[in-house]
Amino acid sequence: MSELPSRVGLLGGGVIGAGWAARFVLNGVDVALYDPEPGAADRVGEVLANARRAYSRLTLAPLPTEGALTFVDSPGSAAQDADLVQESAPERVGLKQRLLAEASRAARPDALFCSSTSGLRPTLLQAQMERPERFIVGHPFNPVYLLPLVELCAGEQTAPEAVDRAAVVYRALGMHPLVVRTEVDGFLADRLLESLWREALWLIHDEVATVEEVDDAIRYGAGLRWAVMGTFLTYRLAGGEEGMRHFLEQFGPALAAPWSKLTDVPELTSAFLEELASQSDAQAGGRSISELERKRDDCLVAILHGLRGQGAGAGEALAAWERALMSAASARITGAQDEATGDGRPQAPLLSPSREIPAEWIDYNGHVHESRYLQLFADATDALLAQVGVDARYLEDGASYYTVETHISHLGQLHAGDRALVATQVLGWDDKRLHLFHLMFREGGEDPVASAEQMLVHVDTAAGRAAPVRDGVRSRVAALAEAHQRLPPPAQAGRKISLG
User: Fold this and answer.
1) Torsion over CA of 211, 213, 215 and 221, rounded to 10 degrees?
2) Residue 197 scores a pLDDT above 80
């Protein structure tokens, strides 16, 4: 069998089965699905539509031609001619055993069988199968088409080859197969999750917290770190340069404190401490604490930016903080301008706060990627809007300026470590439009490194259309435009791309 099977049989089309159908179909694999429940086809179709939408945003890599999805009327029909059969029926031992037994009698002798069970031991599930040596647990996580983890667990009759074959298939689907070394109820992830779930239920039961407060405790804190480093690398960093040994010596005794309902913990003997520390050293792979911390921070920044774009979880906190920073920066700029002019009139042009160029903004040519110039110009526009009163309250009231056109000219280069600032001039305005021109400089330099010309439209955000600027903001825009009219028009304004 090649890395990806050409045909897969699915037993069950619920949340997990439908997720498997989406992951296989979108990877170009033909799927035959058995689910006798009414509405199964509609449910799977909805999940497949969600997966298509997610994949279109997940990667720019070209996806293969979609596989064919066929609904069949029996487990045997699903398994016939399949390279792999994935069972995802409800967690009832008798039902799973019956489906797997029937499908195994109809399948080719070399077909691989996997179960999506979240906790039942594979030895129990393979008991009634023909050729049980080809059976293994392949436990995924919802949504199956996005989360890469799949736990592999062999039963007493499972051949080692089956584990290897399953790992190859799942890896070709873009997943991360994690082999469970010992057959155990619940495998690895769900045992950890159930411990957290039990404690969460007790916190609600004892009225220590609400369900929202428990979720916030995870999604604003530890959950972000877990996405990057899991549990043990996180605690290794908490131990400083001495690593896991120091952490366990310092905080291990706290496990005996009655903080949790789950107080049965293994004794931290010298041998156990040494084993934990040794494995932690191997996991770190020679990377220093500083290296691990920088990697953690870079990943957390990426996660926080993603959450901010979706307006979810810790991203909301980041967005609120950024709005406050922009407002404070605008107040500082306005104060500096008032001090410079002495008469309260706006200073022209408006200068944005300088910003140091981070190393991650550098492209393969060794200088700042062009998209970051747009980001700096957009930040300068936001600073100007904040100064004229387009603040959080104005936005909440359903009004804002939207950029509808931007022209950028690259006149020089910025590099990592440079500090850049932007001078902004209002070229014109009316009740619905704002015409801006930006010049970007390297701090301490006289020659601009880039310019941008922008047209903004004032919008009623609730109605979704252009609308007159509102009182208060209108007067500030008028005052700023009047001050900027005293400046000579920029030489680059109004330029167009042309070979002539």
Assistant:
1) -170
2) yes
